[in-house]
Design a protein that fits this description.
Strands 1-8-9-10-11-18-15-14-13 form a nine-stranded antiparallel sheet. It has a five-stranded antiparallel sheet with strand order 7-6-12-17-16, with no helix packed on it. Strands 2-3-4-5 form a four-stranded antiparallel sheet, with no helix packed on it. It is globular, with a radius of gyration of 26 Å. The protein is α+β, with helices and mostly antiparallel strands and 721 residues long. Helix 9 crosses helix 11, helix 10 packs across helix 11 and helix 15 packs across helix 17. It has two domains: 263 residues, Beta-galactosidase, Chain A, domain 5 (Distorted Sandwich); 449 residues, Glycosyltransferase (Alpha/alpha barrel), CATH 1.50.10. The chain contains 20 helices and 32 strands. The two termini are 31 Å apart. The structure holds beta-D-glucopyranose. The site of beta-D-glucopyranose has 12 residues, from loops.
């Protein structure tokens, strides 16, 4: 078995949505869905751009899909060489995870079409495709290669005022509707054959058309180089795209491919987790690491990653807590510069968070639940559509999921502790921590009859229970945020001029006094036989089985949460909540506490979010439940191999890749199975190798120093490199 290769035989239009994600190529700047070159918008082709958003009317704001600039279609003797239009004899799709190369081979009987393509890791704006035709009889070929403006959008259209220009390079420019951002796509083509060429330019795009009489056994190859730029990247995006294509064309397909592969080699040298003794697991792990690595911002220093990566417009292309809690760990331990970028994005969107807090009447920083460019809140008040009435359902994620600010400060502190680099704190990170702590001070509810401080009317990670009070996860993460602020004071105040200046600027004197008062008073959750109550009153909810709740559904796509959701009145939860807390703050809980809570909550957890299984797996490792951890690891790591995960929330499509699971797989392997920890500034291991594998080894960078961690049956070791 090739543990770097995903393969699929056959073509089925029903699988197009899932396969487009499973076979994704991306480089952090853009994502190219894994569909054949000739795909119409019915197969959901997309070149999704990172960080470029648009809103059409009052529909949801979402990322922009660029014109499809690797579009190729061919006809042979009038037969469309298209998987959609012609019955194929055979069709194989593959994705090479090591180098992010998508390939397809389609047997149309008289002709075989094969191609391999990639989105360059070496040059952020470049895409390239090698497209080959082999003929099994004489005939006439028409081949079209160009830039298609038949763009698939969920809430579009987003691009207008298309202009095309031809020459050596075809160029299409257009503008987004809302902010008039210019998007330019360019394409150059080289062929190994001579053919009369004409141009087709219409409302579907601009295309070179080649016509040729071919002979049996002839092989023709076309190399396509495309580039995408926007006016955010360059004031003259069309020129830049044209230049990029021309340079690639001059260098040639092989040289560009080599540079791309070298860039991937470098990524793997820094991050690959090698798992020996189980090929299925090794493949799943390669898949997860590929999918997370390929969406990482490498072309910018201040960008984060959307919850569905660059696999399309699902979840509005927004940045969630997924970034800090699920993606961040792999990056901070393997490629800290990317971890830094994720956090710089938060530092630079602080204004948005201050504005959001003010909108709700609070001080400090309340980060967007679904953050778009500049920290714009993409989450609407009606985030789910009811499958029965087709009406939008009022959801409270936007206003009540306040743990988001603490998740960000948690990652900021971890970055500092793991990299030893405090420059991020000095460059705005400290301000973020202080503003978040300030937000919680103003959001806290003091009781008049006791000393305790509540956080009422919130939503924890388990979104099926909305508007609850004292969610254990939220309260403890808030406490961690407040303690982080106080820690900054202890370390830097009256010692470091930059910090004293910051405090003065922020007029923080009164906030220190409040933090000192509140920190010891944040309400601790009730416990029953050692089980931490997820929120006040949770234990009083109906305690029924998952099957009972599932049996109450009247539509498989029905939303389990919200006002009428089947889970809301029960103890059934969507995803890890108390257990997520135990995974994030392990030192605050004993092994016994983790075990008791795990046993209570796991059977009550739907794992209805791809963020859930990894938290249970991590905590299962700690309590020695390695078989259970293994099962959850395979579920987590395999999600984008099998195309698992929910596709619908009510009537909203939520499919795509699952970077949170991808990051979760790294966490389970490194922090769970190997048990990597930082203790008193040093690295330690508590190996929990599952019996299903023989060995695990991976690189990490801590405090600027590179290490290799190796875990085998006889124990683990850490080698300094
Ligand atoms: C989960 C959230 C998550 C979001 C994006 C939701 O289904 O409940 O925790 O942040 O998906 O992945």
């Amino acid at each position: 078995m090739d543990t770097w290769l995903l393969q699929k035989e056959g073509f089925n239009v029903q699988d197009a949505a899932v396969d487009g994600s499973r076979f994704l190529c991306a480089n952090g700047y853009m994502g190219l869905r894994g569909v054949p070159e000739e795909a119409s918008s019915a197969l959901f082709p997309a070149v999704t751009l990172a960080g470029v958003y648009d809103q059409n009317g009052d529909r949801w704001r979402e990322p922009v899909n660029a014109p499809n600039c690797l579009y190729i279609r061919a006809d042979f003797n009038g037969l469309p060489l298209s998987v959609e239009k012609t019955q194929v004899q055979a069709h194989r799709t593959a994705l090479d995870y090591r180098y992010g190369i998508y390939s397809r081979e389609t047997d149309f009987g008289e002709v075989r079409v094969s191609s391999r393509r990639y989105v360059s890791m070496a040059s952020a704006h470049l895409l390239a495709d090698e497209y080959r035709l082999v003929f099994f009889r004489d005939g006439e070929l028409t081949l079209q290669a160009g830039i298609s403006t038949d763009i698939w959008d969920i809430n579009g259209p987003h691009l207008f005022d298309f202009r095309h220009s031809e020459g050596e390079t075809l160029v299409t420019t257009c503008l987004t509707g809302q902010n008039r951002i210019a998007v330019a796509a360019a394409q150059c083509v080289r062929t190994d054959f001579e053919a009369p060429e004409s141009l087709r330019k219409d409302e579907t795009g601009i295309f070179r058309v080649f016509r040729r009489i071919v002979k049996k056994d002839e092989t023709l190859t076309l190399w396509v180089f495309s580039a995408v730029y926007t006016s955010i990247d360059d004031p003259a995006p069309a020129d830049a795209a044209q230049r990029c294509c021309a340079q690639a064309m001059a260098a040639g397909f092989d040289a560009c491919l080599q540079a791309h592969k070298d860039a991937w080699e470098d990524i793997w040298a820094r991050s690959e987790v090698m798992m020996e003794g189980n090929e299925e697991a090794a493949l799943a792990l390669h898949a997860s690491q590929y999918h997370l690595n390929c969406v990482a911002p490498r072309h910018a220093q201040n960008m984060s990653i959307p919850a569905r990566g660059l696999s399309g417009q699902t979840y509005k292309g927004a940045v969630f807590w997924d970034s800090e809690i699920f993606f961040f760990p792999m990056f901070v331990y393997t490629q800290p510069v990317i971890a830094r970028s994720l956090l710089r994005y938060r530092i630079e969107t602080l204004q948005g968070a201050l504005k959001k807090a003010a909108e709700y009447g609070y001080r400090g920083a309340f980060y967007a639940w679904e953050s778009q460019e500049g920290g714009i809140e993409g989450c609407t008040n009606f985030n789910v559509v009811d499958v029965f009435t087709h009406r939008p359902v009022r959801t409270y994620f936007r206003d009540k999921q306040i743990h988001i600010s603490a998740d960000i400060t948690y990652a900021l502190r971890s970055y500092w502790e793991i990299t030893g680099d405090r420059s991020l704190l000095m460059e705005g990170g400290a301000r973020v921590i202080l503003e978040c702590a300030r937000f919680y001070l103003s959001r806290a509810n003091a009781r008049v009859d006791s000393d305790e401080v509540d956080f009422a009317d919130v939503i924890g990670p388990d979104e099926y229970h909305e508007r609850v009070t004292n969610n254990a996860f939220t309260n403890m993460m808030i406490l961690h945020c407040m303690e982080s602020a106080l820690m900054l004071r202890d370390i830097f105040a009256d010692r470091e001029a930059w910090f004293d200046r910051l405090l003065k600027e922020m007029d923080y004197e009164n906030d220190w006094a409040l933090l000192d008062r509140v920190r010891g008073r944040v309400r601790q959750s009730r416990k029953q036989d050692g089980v931490i109550e997820q929120f006040d009153g949770y234990f009083e909810l109906e305690d029924c089985s998952m099957e009972t709740v599932r049996s109450r559904l009247r539509d498989p796509r029905e939303y389990w949460g919200g006002d009428h959701g089947v889970a809301g009145t029960t103890q059934i939860i969507k995803q890890a909540d108390v257990i997520a807390l135990m995974a994030l703050l392990p030192e605050r809980f004993t092994d016994d506490q983790v075990a008791v809570n795990w046993d209570y909550y796991e059977p009550r957890t739907e794992h209805g979010s791809s963020l859930s299984a990894c938290m249970y797996a991590l905590t299962a490792c700690r309590t020695g439940k390695t078989d259970k951890a293994w099962e959850l690891f395979m579920k987590t790591a395999g999600i984008d191999v099998t195309g698992g995960g929910k596709q619908w929330a009510g009537e909203i499509y939520i499919g795509g890749t699952h970077p949170a699971s991808n990051g979760g797989a790294w966490m389970i392997a490194a922090l769970g199975f190997a048990g990597l920890r930082i203790k008193n500034g040093g690295l330690t291991l508590v190996p929990r190798l599952p019996r299903q594998i023989d060995r695990l080894s991976f690189p990490v960078t801590v405090n600027g120093q590179d290490y290799r961690v190796e875990v085998a049956r006889d124990g683990g070791r850490i080698r300094q490199l």
